[in-house]
Amino acid sequence: MYPNKQDKNQKLRSVRALYRKNINKTRTDDEETKVWKVLISICVLAVFFICVIDVVFDIGVPLPPLFGI
């Protein structure tokens, strides 16, 4: 091979490696973001459910017999 072509190929390989590294990093960031969104959504729904149950029982609705009280 010619020296110029060898240098060019080596530069291309290094640029490709950096590009692949950057793409893989953004993919894992997206996956982590999805996991956090799911976790926060579950927590918000749980708090909302607890608040609704609390309000319902405060206004005088009796507990169902399922709870054994």
TrEMBL record:
TM region(s), chain numbering: 35-57
Name of the protein in question: Uncharacterized protein
Keyword field contains Membrane: yes
Domain of life: Bacteria
Keywords: Membrane, Transmembrane, Transmembrane helix
Organism, scientific name: Peribacillus psychrosaccharolyticus
